[in-house]
């Protein structure tokens, strides 16, 4: 009995040490071998309540099936980001936006969420919109119906697992607008609208931060939806100047949901 008691005490100490080191309270039997990241949406009911589910997609009456911009008569615009690439750059962009009181819309790629699942909650906790940019970021308009559906629902399923929602928006990959087929499939997956844009920053061409700033500020106006990207240092360097000039013009960067509400 003494040996058994000592074993239980030792087991308890080891268990506490593992929890402090960040292991999941109830890991799957093969989780260590597979190297799979813990699901950040998981919480132990004994210690804290699960996070609230993220907002679901909503229909905006009077808006087209494919939205390229919001109301032109209000001093607001949306900065939207393709969610992919170095998570350090993504965190820097989110922090810069939050420092300036701006809120972004992030369209995440499913494989990126697989590699960095913690980013889903980081985006939402910052007050930003989170949406679906397909599972693998391939040319979805050129795919068969079966493959295109899998790209849309694959990312939607990951968002649902991580946040409790399929995300507020869908944006097609490798195309500014969705084909009629992809639009129909997105609607069937639960997205009333496809989110496009009217200003392309071209930051993915790596033109340098000053060129990104010039391109955005030359075209952005009230109601604009601006396309930008995670993963590019030029974008990180450009964002403070973009936000400062927008503020000077009286234009506030809000989420796409806020832009259309």
Automatic annotation (TrEMBL):
InterPro entries: Glyco_hydro/deAcase_b/a-brl, NODB_dom, Polysacc_deacetylase_ArnD. Residues 22-75 are annotated as: Disordered. Residues 75-254 form the NodB homology domain. It comes from the Bacteria. Gene3D superfamilies: Glycoside hydrolase/deacetylase. GO terms for biological process: carbohydrate metabolic process. GO terms for molecular function: hydrolase activity, acting on carbon-nitrogen (but not peptide) bonds. It holds the Pfam family Polysacc_deac_1. Residues 22-40, 49-61 have a biased composition (Low complexity). This is Polysaccharide deacetylase.
């Amino acid at each position: 009995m003494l040996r058994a008691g000592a074993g239980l005490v030792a087991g308890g100490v080891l268990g506490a040490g593992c929890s402090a080191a960040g292991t999941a309270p109830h890991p799957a039997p093969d989780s260590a071998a597979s190297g799979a990241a813990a699901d950040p949406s998981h919480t132990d009911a004994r210690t804290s309540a699960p996070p609230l589910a993220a907002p679901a997609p909503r229909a905006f009456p009077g808006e087209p099936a494919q939205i390229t911009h919001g109301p032109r008569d209000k001093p607001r615009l949306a900065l939207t980001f393709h969610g992919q690439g170095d998570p350090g750059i993504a965190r820097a962009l989110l922090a810069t936006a939050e420092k300036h009181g701006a809120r972004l819309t992030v369209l995440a790629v499913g494989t990126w969420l697989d590699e960095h699942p913690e980013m889903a909650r980081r985006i939402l906790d910052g007050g930003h919109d989170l949406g679906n940019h397909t599972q693998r970021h391939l040319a979805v308009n050129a795919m068969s119906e079966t493959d295109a559906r899998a790209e849309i629902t694959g990312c939607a399923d990951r968002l649902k697992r991580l946040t409790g929602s399929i995300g507020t928006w869908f944006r097609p990959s490798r195309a500014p607008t969705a084909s009629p087929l992809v639009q129909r499939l997105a609607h069937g997956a639960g997205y009333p609208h496809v989110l496009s844009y009217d200003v392309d920053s071209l930051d993915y061409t790596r033109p340098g931060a000053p060129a990104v700033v010039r391109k955005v500020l030359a075209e952005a106006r009230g109601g604009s939806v601006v396309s930008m990207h995670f993963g590019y240092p030029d974008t990180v360097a450009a964002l403070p100047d973009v936000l400062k000039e927008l503020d000077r013009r009286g234009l506030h960067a809000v989420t796409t949901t806020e832009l259309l509400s």
